[in-house]
Amino acid sequence: MTSTVTSLSPDTIARLPKAVLHDHLDGGLRPATLVELAASVGHRLPTTDPAELAAWYVEAAGSGDLVRYIGTFEHTLAVMQHREGLLRTAEEYVLDLAADGVVYGEVRYAPELMVRGGLTLNEVVEAVQEGLATGMAKAAADGTPVRVGTLLCGMRMFDRTREIADLAVAYRDAGVVGFDIAGAEDGFPPADHLAAFAHLRSESVPFTIHAGEAHGLPSIHQAVQTCGALRIGHGVRITDDIADGRMGRLASWIRDRRIALEMCPTSNLQTGAAASIATHPITELRRLGFRVTVNTDNRLVSGTSMTREMSLLVDEAGWTLDDLRAVTVDALESAFIPLAEREALIADVVLPAYAAHA
């Protein structure tokens, strides 16, 4: 890590502009909102005390098992099956990002998991976009503007990915900026969904793929070389292709072509993909020149925020202001929005703010 002379307290980090590329809408509800919405739809929660519910999520997700981690979403999804729940959670999502100092975010979710209440896929997307737009308008009025783009997820263990890819194409100019596949990684390789990825490429819609979290190099290789992903969700297991600082062909390819790794330190600890913040691969990968980005993954489930993720890296892995600025710029350079918008955020928002704190 490069050195810099500054005090990086959580309060200082909270004021810094941030960018988050990997964050799930259904993993980031406010605990109090989850309690209220669950009561309105008659869904039973582990507890109706918001503080206890927040603690339950962190404990349940910290089992080291990705399948159990994913299972905690049963409760959030239960309250996101109707227009009212989607509007509220999307609006609050944006306001929570703004309060965390995020100036650009990409939020992802799987529309196919939100149709049990009778909504169509299109109605789900339109409700989420309306809620996000309301949140962005309120954040701007409060003097904390944040730009939020949407990634639509196909679930890799089901058979609707091509249908969701069509949805991403249809809403490409209405707030949807890209596509992803999510869900249990082991046993459900990216190459199973080639038709969806081919369609997205033909329509010039960018996509990222969850890979290298619960499964190793074959998953990452398929995501990049077979499917054509522009970014990798997590990608922690790329270290399997690095020994004593020497990189194999796949690791070199990803580094040299600036394929961003959407790394989520706290989440990776919870799912067993990393052992500690101090030894998380993100620090070594950054030192080796990879384009790494810092992300929250699921703010409720992981009990985290961008401020917390950055603070942990500072306190436990020795990161500096220079490191935080670099990964923020890298995230914006890898965002799925037009170049001019990315450059404006970097030049007009991020760099001046970090210079002021140097």
What does this structure look like?
- With 358 residues, the chain is of the alpha/beta class.
- It has one domain (10-351): Alpha-Beta Barrel (TIM Barrel), CATH 3.20.20.
- Helix content is 48%, strand content 14%.
- The chain has 16 helices and ten strands.
- The chain has helices spanning 10-15, 31-41, 50-61, 66-71, 73-78, 83-99, 121-141, 161-170, 194-202, 217-226, 249-256, 265-270, 281-287, 306-317, 321-333, 339-357, and strands spanning 18-24, 102-109, 147-155, 176-182, 208-211, 231-234, 242-243, 246-247, 260-263, 292-294.
- Strands 1-2-3-4 form a four-stranded parallel sheet, with helices on both faces.
- The longest helix is centred in the middle third of the chain and has 21 residues, at 121-141.
- The chain is globular.
- The relative contact order is 0.15.
- Its EC number is 3.5.4.4.
- Pfam families: A_deaminase (PF00962).
- Belongs to the metallo-dependent hydrolases superfamily. Adenosine and AMP deaminases family. Adenosine deaminase subfamily.
